[in-house]
Structures are given as structure tokens and as C-alpha cells.
Amino acid sequence: MAEQQTIRSGAGVRSAEIDQGLRTHMNKVYGTMSVGMVITAFAAWAISGLAVTPSGELSQLGVAIYTTPLKWLIMFAPLIMVFAFGALINRISAAGAQLFFYTFAALMGLSLSSIFLVFTGFSIVQTFLITAVAFAGLSLWGYTTKKDISGWGSFLIMGVIGLIVASIVNIFLGSPAIMFAISALGVLIFAGLTAYDTQKIKTDYIQHAQSMDQEWLSKSAIMGALNLYLDFINLFMFLLSFMGNRE
């Protein structure tokens, strides 16, 4: 009887340790993601300011960024970095992974800087706040739901690949109808990914709670932050295409 009580007591202590560790882990994920968002917002705002002269014309930097072949490099560089990050995460240190993520966030800010030239500042702020509320609700649901949504993963990833292909094709077609369909599907897909990725971060932590080390923990938090960061940015951009008022 005493042994059973000891076992229960030990299991309870271990469960409490996992719960505390999970909260710390999720705080690290959301904290890293938030820093990345601040870097992106500042970079986008700063570059957009340098890209326009006081008279409202594009500066030399603006011309180089938005009207020369350099724009294609700026557009696709973040996508290339995402794939590179996935390939390098197991080979670099946690500090190197964090630096890579922040560099990626700055480059993403450069890529997104044109929204300040296309949309009004009010609509950008309004859409950002709506995205933040929606993201928080979706992420909270993914964290607290008892439903296993791991099966969504392959379907959602296929949807993302389809969005990328359709977006590239529409660069040359310039069809408003296709753009509208892409935006609508994009909102739905990244809403689903927000909940899915949150649950996956939680599940991965719990599954590895017995054997993980500090280095793994730090890398896992950064990778989780990157996934949620991408969910937020894409959800924001697709909502902005619907709600944004153009200059």
C-alpha cells in the first residue's frame, strides 16, 4: 500500500514537472515569435520609409527593391531560408538557430515593406489587430482541445503547396478572381495550421519530456516559434488582401 502511494506521489510530481516545463516551453515559443514579429514590423516600416522620397516618389533604394529583378530575390529569399532552416536545425547550435530566425524575420520585413506603400496605415494596423485576436483564439483552441487534429497536417501542407504554386502562376496571369480564391483559401488553411502547429508543439514536448535535453528544448522552441510566426504572417497577409484599403 505504501509502495502504491509512493508511486502515485512520484507520478504526480513528475506530471507537475511536465506541466511546468510545458508552460515554460510555450512561453519561450511565443516570446521568440513575438521578438521576430517586432523585428519584421520594424524592418518593413524602416525600409518603406527609405524607399520613398519626401515628395512621394520612389527613392533609388525603392526603385532597386520594387522595380528591378532584385524584387524576385527579395520575394523568394524568405521561402528559401525556411527550407534551409529545416535542413540545418539539427546541425547548428540553439544560439545559431535563434540568430538564423531573427535574420529571417528581418529579411521577411524587407519582403513585406511594400504593404506600407500599397495599403493605408490604418488598414494595416486594423488588420494586424484582427489577425492577432484570431491567432490568439485559434492557438488557444489548439492548445486546450482534447481532439486530436494531427491528421490535419498532410492536408494543410498540401494546401500550402497549392497556394504557393497558384500564387506563382498568378504573378504572370494577374487574375483578380484567382487572387480572391487564393486569399480565401489562404485564410482557411493558415487558420487551421495555427491550431495544428500549436497542438503539435505541445504534443512534441510531452512525448519527449522524459529524454529531452536543454539544447533540444531550445531548438524545439525556436522551430515552434518559426512555424507559428509563419502562420501569423500568412494569415495577416491574406486578411489584408480582403480588408486592406489601398493608397
UniProtKB/TrEMBL annotation:
Pfam families: Bax1-I
Ranges that cross the membrane: 29-52, 72-92, 99-118, 124-143, 155-172, 178-196, 216-243
GO cellular component: plasma membrane
Sorted UniProt keywords: Membrane, Transmembrane, Transmembrane helix
InterPro entries per UniProt: Bax_inhibitor_1-related
Highest taxon above the source species: Bacteria
Membrane topology: Multi-pass membrane protein
Location of the protein in the cell: Membrane
Similarity section: Belongs to the BI1 family.
Database matches in PANTHER family: BAX INHIBITOR-RELATED, PROTEIN LIFEGUARD 4
Protein known as: Bax inhibitor-1/YccA family protein
Organism field: Palleronia pontilimi
